[in-house]
Amino acid sequence: MTSQDQILISAKSVTKTYEDGFQALKGVDLDIVDGEIIALLGPNGAGKTTLISIICGIVNASSGTVTVAGHDIVDDYRKTRSLIGLVPQELTTDAFESVWSTVSFSRGLFGKPANPAHIEKVLKDLSLWDKKDNRIMQLSGGMKRRVLIAKALAHEPRILFLDEPTAGVDVELRKDMWAVVEQLRADGVTIILTTHYIEEAEAIADRIGVINKGEIIVVEEKAALMTKLGQKSLRLDLHAPLTRIPDNLSAFTGALDLSEDGSVLTYSYDTSAERTGITRLLAGLAEADVRVADLSTHQSSLEDIFVDLVREQA
Amino acid sequence: MNGRAILAIYRYEMARMWRTIGQSVVSPVLSTSLYFIVFGAAIGSQMQEIDGVSYGAFLVPGLVMLSLLTQSVSNAAFGIYFPKFTGTIYEVLSAPVSAFEILCGYVGAAATKSLILGAIILATATLFVDLQIAHPFWMLFFLVLTAVTFSLLGFIIGIWADGFDQLQIVPLLVITPLVFLGGSFYSISMLPDFWQTVTLFNPVLYLVSGFRWSFYEISDVSPMISILAILVFLTVCCTIIWWIFKTGYRLKS
């Protein structure tokens, strides 16, 4: 995030304590930049949905403020809400309505004049066009999910919230949905996505925020987060097995690991460190007359990072 | 003012009525016709006139009120309870609509439905009895305000209800007895003094009495009191709803 980026949504010290005393959010600060795709990652019950619900007006915050495009979500709710489309986590649809009428209803509800051409485009983009006259109850779960997305897009929002959009959705549909998200991003829509599928965040997000126990632990550019927190490892397949790590490599103790059969040496290093130590390691190996058959490096995935972060906090 | 949203909710609710036409129109009309046949034609022929009005004709305003009250309450209660139950309420809550607009949409549709129903029942009644309407303006006044007021009450019940059973309880255990005991089928002057006094505490009496007055100029209580009473009920319901939206009671956590 650079200083030129325009902040579209800004949450300041947002807390939420439910009536039963459960503290879902403990002072969340989050800025969302115009045009980005940000993924909020977190385990179940971390507060992702609560945060989204507050921004969209479904849940009242206990304290703190949120602004959308400079407007307060409470005082100027008409302005903020008309900018936002929400796809909820649960498949909450009207069973008896037709796809066409439920999507048209959403547009009217958000105060936009009827525009059949736009509705048609949305339905076609989501491969719902041939189902437009079907009652929603006749659709599969994946199709219902598409209907919810179509409803959220019916009023041409500038911001789209996708609350676990691909939970319980098959792989094909998930790929379709990512394509829709890409298209929306190209149209300049800002997208906030919650998920616990890390591969989803990794595949489509620009930035990633990790929420756990009602707090944002980290918000970073995806690449930066992965390099910053990512460990890389270098795997060396040896020509002949070793019985132990050669003495001249004692400086690497801790970072260097010999496999049980002695044929693989693994070296873990920090990519952000000034010196990775790889040259020294290779020189040391040559000195000790250890011959390397093959080498490969491995970058830890977002999943590894996420698990580390959440575990650290626990 | 988000007029399009009001219209969207209103149309959506009206579409629901056409989808469930059997349940929302045919069944109340059928049951009212049964009342006419049994009380109006069969029993009514054996009864003397009340204040110069045949019993069959005397019944009509009471029967219209019975349908109007129960249908307004249950239509509006169901209309708002169902989206709460299925979760689709999220969309209305996240939309740029004010509480007043939501209310206009839901209550407007519920009141419209019960007015349509009231009109159908009145039309049906003309098949059985000779109807005359002395004060059409006041007749409409009572009809519309009762439909609106009790749709508001239904809306409150729909928001309060936690389950389908609670949705049924108020119409069944409160509204129906009040209507039956509120002089829908008889003049309270037929009751012993003690029960006449008790009946004066029944709010429905004032509605039925005023409504009947607009037809035949006979009433149990002064029409002015009836007009005041309906305005008081309207104010009470509006106040409760204002409080509900202000606090988010059972709508927002």
Automatic annotation (TrEMBL), chain A:
<comment type="similarity">
    <text>Belongs to the ABC transporter superfamily.</text>
</comment>
<protein>
    <submittedName>
        <fullName>ABC transporter ATP-binding protein</fullName>
    </submittedName>
</protein>
<dbReference type="InterPro" id="IPR050763">
    <property type="entry name" value="ABC_transporter_ATP-binding"/>
</dbReference>
<keyword id="KW-0547">Nucleotide-binding</keyword>
<keyword id="KW-0067">ATP-binding</keyword>
<dbReference type="Pfam" id="PF00005">
    <property type="entry name" value="ABC_tran"/>
</dbReference>
<dbReference type="InterPro" id="IPR027417">
    <property type="entry name" value="P-loop_NTPase"/>
</dbReference>
<dbReference type="InterPro" id="IPR017871">
    <property type="entry name" value="ABC_transporter-like_CS"/>
</dbReference>
<dbReference type="GO" id="GO:0016887">
    <property type="term" value="F:ATP hydrolysis activity"/>
</dbReference>
<keyword id="KW-0813">Transport</keyword>
<dbReference type="GO" id="GO:0005524">
    <property type="term" value="F:ATP binding"/>
</dbReference>
<dbReference type="InterPro" id="IPR003593">
    <property type="entry name" value="AAA+_ATPase"/>
</dbReference>
<dbReference type="InterPro" id="IPR003439">
    <property type="entry name" value="ABC_transporter-like_ATP-bd"/>
</dbReference>
<feature type="domain" description="ABC transporter">
    <location>
        <begin position="9"/>
        <end position="238"/>
    </location>
</feature>
TrEMBL record, chain B:
<feature type="transmembrane region" description="Helical">
    <location>
        <begin position="198"/>
        <end position="215"/>
    </location>
</feature>
<keyword id="KW-0812">Transmembrane</keyword>
<feature type="transmembrane region" description="Helical">
    <location>
        <begin position="167"/>
        <end position="186"/>
    </location>
</feature>
<feature type="domain" description="ABC transmembrane type-2">
    <location>
        <begin position="19"/>
        <end position="248"/>
    </location>
</feature>
<feature type="transmembrane region" description="Helical">
    <location>
        <begin position="221"/>
        <end position="245"/>
    </location>
</feature>
<dbReference type="InterPro" id="IPR000412">
    <property type="entry name" value="ABC_2_transport"/>
</dbReference>
<feature type="transmembrane region" description="Helical">
    <location>
        <begin position="55"/>
        <end position="82"/>
    </location>
</feature>
<feature type="transmembrane region" description="Helical">
    <location>
        <begin position="21"/>
        <end position="43"/>
    </location>
</feature>
<dbReference type="InterPro" id="IPR047817">
    <property type="entry name" value="ABC2_TM_bact-type"/>
</dbReference>
<dbReference type="InterPro" id="IPR013525">
    <property type="entry name" value="ABC2_TM"/>
</dbReference>
<feature type="transmembrane region" description="Helical">
    <location>
        <begin position="115"/>
        <end position="133"/>
    </location>
</feature>
<keyword id="KW-1133">Transmembrane helix</keyword>
<comment type="similarity">
    <text>Belongs to the ABC-2 integral membrane protein family.</text>
</comment>
<keyword id="KW-0813">Transport</keyword>
<keyword id="KW-0472">Membrane</keyword>
<dbReference type="GO" id="GO:0043190">
    <property type="term" value="C:ATP-binding cassette (ABC) transporter complex"/>
</dbReference>
<protein>
    <recommendedName>
        <fullName>Transport permease protein</fullName>
    </recommendedName>
</protein>
<dbReference type="GO" id="GO:0140359">
    <property type="term" value="F:ABC-type transporter activity"/>
</dbReference>
<keyword id="KW-1003">Cell membrane</keyword>
<dbReference type="InterPro" id="IPR052522">
    <property type="entry name" value="ABC-2_transport_permease"/>
</dbReference>
<feature type="transmembrane region" description="Helical">
    <location>
        <begin position="140"/>
        <end position="161"/>
    </location>
</feature>
<dbReference type="Pfam" id="PF01061">
    <property type="entry name" value="ABC2_membrane"/>
</dbReference>
